[in-house]
Amino acid sequence: MKNIRNFCIIAHIDHGKSTLADRLLQTTNTISEREMKDQALDDMDLERERGITIKSHAIQMDYVQDDEQYVLNLIDTPGHVDFSYEVSRSIAACEGALLIVDASQGIQAQTISNLYLAIENDLEIIPILNKMDLPGAMPEEVTDQIVDLIGCDPSEVIPASGKTGLGVDKILEAIIARIPAPEGDPEAPLQAMIFDSVFNPFRGIIAYYRVLNGAIKKGDRVKFVNTGKEYDADEIGVLKMDLAPKKAVNTGDVGYIISGIKKANEVKVGDTITTVENPCLNAVKGFEDVKPMVFAGIYPVDTEDYEELRYSMEKLQLNDASLVFEPESSAALGFGFRCGFLGMLHMEIIQERLEREFDMTVITTVPNVSYKAYLKKDEELVIVNNPSDLPDPAKMDYIEEPYIKASVITKSDYVGAIMTLCIEKRGEMTNQVYLTQDRVELSFDMPMSEVVFDFYDRLKTISKGYASFDYYPTDYRRSDLIKLDILLNSEQVDALSALVHRSNAFTLGKKICLKLKELIPRQQFEIPIQAAIGAKIVARETIKALRKDVTAKCYGGDISRKRKLLEKQKAGKKRMRQVGRVEVPQEAFLAVLKLD
Ligand code: GTP
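Above: inputs. Below: predicted complex with guanosine-5'-triphosphate.
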């Protein structure tokens, strides 16, 4: 146990976490030069392209220093606010953290919130100044930032470069010297914490855990404390480049278990594994059942693909327990599913995976948060995950919406503009702290729904990219919300409805109509676009009819041309949906998210 080191990496996206992790794997001979792919830790194509570690993984390295044999467990953490609970569990499984900061960029908001989490969990922090090879590196300034933040000595900051290999040996030495060995009682009953799980099509769910006390042995009858389910530990072992089966995984170590579990939602991150025969007294603290934050409808472009979509979603859910869905129907779009996601990025990822891995073409409707509507009668509570489910305003007493605590870190030049944006988004500034002379952290409370509506892009634009954003949900607050409906060709399109604050309703209605006019192609006839609150029309635009019937040419008998056109359309995956008589492209359903 004294020669085990468990650590994670805290870094902002693109600060070089994967590159540096690969260097560690290489230096410890965990991975050979030949095996070395660009980024060994990110094994999904999608992740590599996006440069975001969606799911945390773990890997074990053997390392010899001064004739002592050490076991280093690197636990990877996803670097996005949508996955912050998983990050918190990964951090809880470690004794130390490498804090990687891009020497040309400095510290970003996401880094800071994860850093705070690590400090709260008493992790030993090893600060690393990465990308030192870049001509734009600002070692003094960024070292000052780090020293300010964690109160270390400047000499503790390790200059490094994943690209040239600078500093890698120093990092390994620091891991051994500074990170404490795990504690725990090897004689106690088994207590292990699950920090991640992955789906393997042949073996089912593989759960990753950290053993806090006792040992897990092959063949044990084990129990997952929070779900209450029991399994046989068919195979256990540690994680090298591949799974390495073992007879036992002992106190302090990180391992995996395969026990014939088929569904991701049976394995909950944060849950405790113990044995049925000799169970531990307490579950590991900090378990949370993660709830989706953002909801949207997903519909097949072709109504006939509904069953196939259901099949694909079920498959997706097998390896992504955070995805929830239930059937719903829309007057405009027919049969589809109301899906719950951890956040906006998670929603984009699911949509992309449906298209890439399952070859589905889908329409995603306006995302929304989960509202609470209280009825006048008996104060009955209705959870509203779809604006169309909002009860009749006459019967409603009031509505509550979820609030978040948001943190933005930016350069002082942009503080004014960001404060203006925050107020426009119904936010309330709660704090402003200068982290360094030029870097400010702004904290504010604001409705979660405003993050869904075009927040990231606006923030990026007004700060010229020099702002990072992080948030966590706090509470529900009463709000003056109303349903804004959209009518196309005089027919209400339920999939375009949104709940908005009364004070914004007119402006938003106007903007949405304008945006839709831009996005919906002209058709054979004139299409009025209207925004309405109840029976009252608050905005109107008109899409003029096409002057000449250009498509008619294609249908004039030249069948090969028609087929060619159809094939071309199919190849281009034109996501168009017929709504009443109007052809509506996918972008139009998300118009409300991208208003200028
Ligand atoms: P996420 O997976 O998105 O969290 O990113 P990451 O932090 O893992 O960063 P990654 O290792 O993928 O590196 C991001 C980019 O920076 C890539 O284009 C790397 O080639 C580049 N990069 C990484 N380390 C260095 C470095 O030390 N020097 C230079 N010049 N570039 C680097």
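The chain has five domains: 4-178, 191-275, 294-364, 371-479, 483-593.
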